[in-house]
């Protein structure tokens, strides 16, 4: 299809506007974190690095960061094991109910977070003795499985079964083949999936609100608690800005590690 | 190598079903017991009641929670408002995503495409809460960024409310629409577009009659995300919604005092999402997720 020059110009302009819409709010947060204004008032009346220093010194922020990292690491570890197991099954076996399993894995992120949140909250508090650190990890792992699964499955599909058959022909059993052939070939996809799972858990707020034990404050929970406190606004700005900068890392690494980026338009 | 391990391996090799069961048992136990079990428990709770005097759960079957939702005008208007917001957000995402994805897939040079995709992906992985917070700064009446931008034109920021929620949710879910639509555009075969123009169709006609029908499944795939994610959201309404409530806010406010009622309300978005998935299953969208 030949696209006329004027159409191209209009499309470029619309694309520019769309990218403006996407990036202006993020830039505003970055700029606000250096603003001397104590509220969200725009434009900033001056610039300072004072808030960044205060945020680094803030015990609340440091504790919340540590909690978030611990939760995300534990949830990612569980999601890695479960996600890899399911991806092996879906990629290498044909059986009754296979389609329902892929649906079941996507369900925790397709249903509204609040539904997942109160469903788990109900079971944990009514039947399993209350919310703890562990319940939070269980909840996070549940919706993190899908990203590991999707990345691992895309890689397994691309690899095909030939190398594994060759390995079996040479006398290797199932576990040896997995350890020496399949796993090394999957490794970069697993790293990408694990990073995305970590990011997903690190950012999550809704399910977290309903499944975190009393006193467990992750970074998003900390932001949420301080969002409406006027005197905390500058620190919240800094934490928000830092999170925007940090979120670039998993994208970058995942893009480098995973050559399966084009999985038919899949998002996860 | 000892014979025992060899027979052991042979045993697993000869019994693929056992191998399958071994691989599947842990993940299925987790997803079915922890997740589906919780959902089922919640769904059953929706048919229970809370005793008005003691505040205790009464575990007898009743439809009262659902009757309460569907006969109270305030709840009905919240349902209508929530569905309206979700539809509006989906349409807005589509209006922004179509030209942008077309530009990325068909106008921009191949060298720039990975960068453009990364530029769409980066905000997707930026913290959800940070993005909502960013729009709080954008929308703040009188002294926000939007007020500053359009103030010279004699306009004021829409402030916190319906428009604020719609803009913020559009912002949040936009990448979920862009990525499948972009992928749909890149999959379009050039030969088909050439055939259309050989048959005399101008650019717009080709777009209407060839391109749009072919990317329809991708559009539906994107809309599943934008629609269902908007339907269940409540944090956005809390931060940029002013006094306006969505279904999620009702659930969040009632789940401590009246879990059965909250459970009944929360089945509404789930049922709407499932109906939507059922309605679009023939479009081929589910393979594009």
UniProtKB/TrEMBL annotation, chain A:
Where the protein is mainly located, per its record?
A: membrane
Annotated GO biological process? transmembrane transport
**Membrane as UniProt keyword:** yes
* Gene Ontology CC annotation, any one: plasma membrane
Annotated ranges, domain ABC transmembrane type-1:
65-254
Q: Please list every transmembrane segment annotated in the UniProt record, as residue ranges.
A: 12-34, 64-89, 101-120, 126-149, 189-213, 233-253
According to Swiss-Prot or TrEMBL, what is its membrane topology? Answer: Multi-pass membrane protein
Q: Where in the cell is it found?
A: Cell membrane
Q: Does the keyword Magnesium apply?
A: no
Which CDD domains does the protein's record reference?
Answer: TM_PBP2
UniProt keyword terms in alphabetical order: Cell membrane, Membrane, Transmembrane, Transmembrane helix, Transport
PANTHER family referenced in this protein's UniProt entry, alphabetically:
PUTRESCINE TRANSPORT SYSTEM PERMEASE PROTEIN POTI
Protein family per UniProt? Belongs to the binding-protein-dependent transport system permease family. CysTW subfamily.
Record protein name field: Unannotated protein
UniProtKB/TrEMBL annotation, chain B:
Family matches, as InterPro entries:
MetI-like, MetI-like_sf
Question: Does the entry feature the keyword Cell cycle, yes or no?
Answer: no
Annotated coiled-coil segments of the chain: none
A GO CC term assigned to this protein in UniProt: plasma membrane
User: Which keywords does the record carry?
Assistant: Cell membrane, Membrane, Transmembrane, Transmembrane helix, Transport
**Any matching Pfam family:** BPD_transp_1
Mode of membrane association: Multi-pass membrane protein
Q: Give residue ranges for domain ABC transmembrane type-1.
A: 79-280
Chief place of localization: membrane
- GO BP annotations listed: transmembrane transport
Keyword Transmembrane: yes or no?
Answer: yes
Q: Where in the cell is it found?
A: Cell membrane
For this protein, the parts annotated as crossing the membrane are 20-48, 83-103, 115-139, 159-185, 206-227, 259-279
- Spell out the family assignment given in the record's similarity comment: Belongs to the binding-protein-dependent transport system permease family. CysTW subfamily.
Tell me the protein's name. Answer: Unannotated protein
Native organism:
freshwater metagenome
């Amino acid at each position: 299809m030949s696209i006329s020059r004027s159409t191209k110009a209009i499309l470029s302009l619309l694309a520019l506007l769309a990218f403006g819409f996407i990036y202006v709010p993020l830039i505003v947060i970055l700029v606000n974190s250096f603003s001397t204004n104590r509220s969200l008032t725009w434009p900033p009346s001056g610039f300072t690095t004072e808030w960044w220093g205060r945020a680094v010194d803030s015990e609340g922020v440091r504790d919340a960061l540590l909690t978030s990292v611990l939760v995300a690491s534990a949830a990612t570890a569980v999601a890695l094991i479960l996600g890899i197991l399911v991806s092996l099954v879906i990629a290498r076996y044909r059986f009754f109910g296979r389609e329902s399993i892929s649906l079941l894995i996507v369900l925790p992120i397709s249903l509204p977070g609040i539904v997942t949140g109160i469903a788990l909250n109900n079971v944990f508090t009514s039947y399993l003795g209350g919310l703890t650190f562990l319940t939070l990890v269980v909840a996070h792992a549940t919706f993190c499985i899908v990203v590991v699964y999707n990345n691992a499955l895309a890689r397994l599909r691309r690899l095909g079964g030939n190398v594994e058959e060759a390995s079996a022909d040479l006398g290797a059993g199932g576990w040896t083949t997995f350890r020496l052939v399949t796993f090394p070939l999957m490794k970069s996809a697993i790293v990408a999936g694990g990073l995305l799972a970590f990011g997903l858990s690190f950012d999550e707020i809704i399910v977290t609100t309903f499944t975190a034990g009393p006193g467990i404050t992750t970074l998003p929970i900390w932001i949420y608690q301080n969002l409406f406190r006027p005197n905390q606004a500058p620190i919240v700005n800094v934490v928000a800005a830092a999170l925007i900068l940090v979120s670039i890392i998993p994208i970058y690494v995942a893009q480098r590690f995973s050559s399966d980026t084009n999985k038919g338009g899949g998002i996860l | 190598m000892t014979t025992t391990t060899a027979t052991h391996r042979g045993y697993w090799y000869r019994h693929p079903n056992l191998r399958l069961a071994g691989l599947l048992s842990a993940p299925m136990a987790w997803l079915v017991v922890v997740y589906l079990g919780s959902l089922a428990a919640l769904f059953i709770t929706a048919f229970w009641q809370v005793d008005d005097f003691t505040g205790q759960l009464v575990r007898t079957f009743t439809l009262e929670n659902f009757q309460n939702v569907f006969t109270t005008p305030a709840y009905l208007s919240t349902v209508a408002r929530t569905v309206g917001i979700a539809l509006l957000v989906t349409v807005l995402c589509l209006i922004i995503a179509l030209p942008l994805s077309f530009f990325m897939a068909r106008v921009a040079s191949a060298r720039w495409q990975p960068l453009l995709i990364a530029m769409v992906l980066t905000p997707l992985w930026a913290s959800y809460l940070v993005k909502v917070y960013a729009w709080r700064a954008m929308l703040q009446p009188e002294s926000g960024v939007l007020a500053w931008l359009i103030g010279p034109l004699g306009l004021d920021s829409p402030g916190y409310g319906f428009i604020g929620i719609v803009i913020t949710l559009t912002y949040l879910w936009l990448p979920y629409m862009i990525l499948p639509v972009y992928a749909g555009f890149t999959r379009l075969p050039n030969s088909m577009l050439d055939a259309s123009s050989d048959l005399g169709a101008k650019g717009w006609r080709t777009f209407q009659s060839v391109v749009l029908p072919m990317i329809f499944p991708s559009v539906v795939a994107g809309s599943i995300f934008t629609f269902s994610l908007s339907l269940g959201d409540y944090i956005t309404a809390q931060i940029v919604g002013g006094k306006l409530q969505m279904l999620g806010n009702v659930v969040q406010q009632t789940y401590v005092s009246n879990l059965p009622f909250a459970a009944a309300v929360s089945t509404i978005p789930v049922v709407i999402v499932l109906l939507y998935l059922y309605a679009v299953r023939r479009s081929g969208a589910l393979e594009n997720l």
